[in-house]
Amino acid sequence: MSIRKIRTNLLSALLGVLLTVSGTALYVGASGSSAPHETWLDSWSAAQISAGDVLGPNWSAAGFAGHTIRQTVRPTLAGDSVRITLSNLFGDRPLPIAAATIAHATDGAAVRSGTVRPLSFGGAPGAVIPQGAELTSDATDYPVNARQSLTVTLYLSRPTGPATFHYLANTTTYRAIGDHSADVDGGAFTEFSNSWYYLAGVEVSGIPNRDGVVVFGDSLTDGAGAWPDMDNRYPDALADRLAVAGRPRAVLNAGIGGNRIVSDSAYVGQRAATRFRRDVLDKEGVGTVILLSGINDIGASELHEPWMRPNPEVTAGQLIAEYRQLIRMARAGGLQIIGGTLLPFQGAPYYSERGERVRDAVNTWIRGSGEFDAVVDFERALADPADPDALAARFDSGDQLHPGPAGYSAMADAAVAVLLGAAD
């Protein structure tokens, strides 16, 4: 699929087309770029999938019409200017955005008084994002603090159709009827979801660098087993560790729950190589990617739920071939790529002895091949010393597959040691 990422600025506003949706001037993106003196760095991101509710209740299939949605994110890099990227990558029609604002979060759907700022697109308060495209807002002078919550509020006045979204946000999104994009009080927001909709990225202005890290993978990266609204996924903890060590960097979470290396899925996203450019290589200010993925490929053949299809048996050789492709892609993009060993999964719903043999073979290759620039041994960091094929109980969320917050903290400890060692 061809992806158009549209940047807006004053010039593109002059070259773009304005139309009206419910009385609001909207910008239909023309190609543009940032002013030459601006340097943009990705500070937060979420990998996108197509609409569907097979994984659990959410609003993506129905989309929105006359709704305001307020979403909370946690940027990992500070800056004095900000812009956001909205995605209509998997929509079935152009996406009208009637209004968008940004604000500093407080409790629930409320935002801090005096911090609400409207966003613009080519100088207009709204935009129409073409089907299959992403759109980046104009730059806005607005202070963004690293690792402090920010809200992005969108008013969607007209029917959107199925929404491009990120299912496992582990962060509450709020919905209201009518235009409440400028509200400080959260009282109008009476509906709740655990997903992000359309919001693909937050960038901040900064000094040019390639210090950023993309953490790429499946639900172990996405944060299944973390606590809602607590920002204790392993990439969150990694950003915290780097800041405490005096080496702050952008840490971008490119995990998708259920995602796989070998197979595309209608429900859990495009396979790793298909989405690698969009979710890793196209990010601004990134120099390193940490790869942890493959356990879903190994286990999928043991399950028969629709969201796991296609679910063929996968060999270690197939996974290694896909890892090598990702290594080549990262190197061609000038990135360092760090391989993560696959975590123990004995007792998980899709565990099998065959799958365990594949996991062992893959981990042996990750550790010993020398093909990655470095290796984070997540398996050894989280395994039960008395039963190395299982997660240690203190790290297990309870399903024998996903770590809980203590496990994600241990993963961050293992990753930061490798990152700082590689940088020294």
From TrEMBL:
Spell out the protein name for this chain: SGNH/GDSL hydrolase family protein
Presence of the UniProt keyword Nucleus in the record: no
* Cytoplasm is among the record's keywords: no
Species whose genome carries this gene: Nocardia speluncae
Q: Name one GO molecular function term.
A: hydrolase activity
Q: Which CDD domains match?
A: XynE_like
Residue ranges spanning the membrane: these are none
Q: Which Pfam families match?
A: Lipase_GDSL_2
| Alphabetical keyword list | Hydrolase
Instruction: Tell me which residues make up the SGNH hydrolase-type esterase domain.
Output: 215-409
